[in-house]
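Running this now, will post back.
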Amino acid sequence: QVQLVESGGGLVQPGGSLRLSCAASGFTLDYYVIGWFRQAPGKEREGVSCISSSDGSTYYADSVKGRFTISRDNAKNTVYLQMNSLKPEDTAVYYCAAPGQYGSSCPRGSPSWWYDYWGQGTQVTVSS
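Update: finished.
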């Protein structure tokens, strides 16, 4: 059974940092593309970042480029999202996701429909 569990969210001041974790079980994470998504109240789920399973290539949404960094630790079967210089508009529930099949490269545009397995989400609130 494929399971993903996010952690690391919380309440932070604008300009602060958080590191989100996506821990995988039931599969070897390093063989999968892993995406990070977020959903704010009243808005559609949007792709934030993605990391490939082949060469470690990454994708970032324009809104987070230069502030967020995705990485993986194969030994811990975990993918991370380091979030720096957080803004109020980053407030959302953050999800990690994996496709139903092995994949090597992040899909173009980071479409949510490409992913089959999702974590339960972790809340990130950026407010003063």
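The mean pLDDT is 94. More later if anyone needs it.
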